[in-house]
Amino acid sequence: MISKLTNLLAEKKNRDLALLAGGAVTLMAGGKVTPVALFLAGMKGLEDEWRKAHPDFRGGLKERFAVSIEHYDATHQHPTNRVLHTVGIPMIVGGFVGMLGAPRFSPPWWIANGSWTAGWALNFIGHGLYEKGEPAFATDPLGPIAGPVWDFVRLRDKFFGGAAEPDEAPAVEAAAPTTHA
Question: Is the torsion defined by CA of 64, 142, 162, 169 positive or negative?
Answer without folding.
Answer: positive
